Amino acid sequence: FLFVAAVEVKIEVVIPEKERNKEEMSPNGKASPLIYKVNGTTRHYHLEEHPIASNPYHNPKDVVEASVCHVKDLENGQMREVDLGCGKALLIKESGEFHAVGHKCPHYGAPLVKGVLSKGRVRCPWHGACFNIATGDIEDFPGLDSLPRFQVKIEKEKVYIRASKQALQTQRRTKMMAKCISLSNYNLSGTNVLIIGAGAAGLVCAETLRQEGFSDRIVMCTMDRHLPYDRPKLSKSMDSHPEQIALRPKEFFRTYDIEVLTEMQVAAVDIKNKTAVFKDGFKMEYNKLLIATGNTPKALSCKGKEVENVFNIRTPEDANRVVKLATSKNVVIVGASFLGMEVAAYLAERAHSVSLVELEEVPFKKFFGERVGRAVMKMFESNRVKFYMQTEVSELREQEGKLKEIVLKSGKVLRADVCVVGVGAVPATGFLKQSGINIDSKGFIIVNKMMQTNIPGVFAAGDAVTFPLALRNNKKVNVPHWQMAHMHGRVAALNMLAHGVEISTVPYLWTAMFGKSIRYAGHGEGFDDVVIQGDLDELKFVAFYTKSDEVVAVASMNYDPIVSKVAEVLAAGRTIRKRDHCCSFLSFRTGDMSWLTGKGS
Question: Which PROSITE patterns match (predicted)?
Answer without folding.
Answer: RIESKE
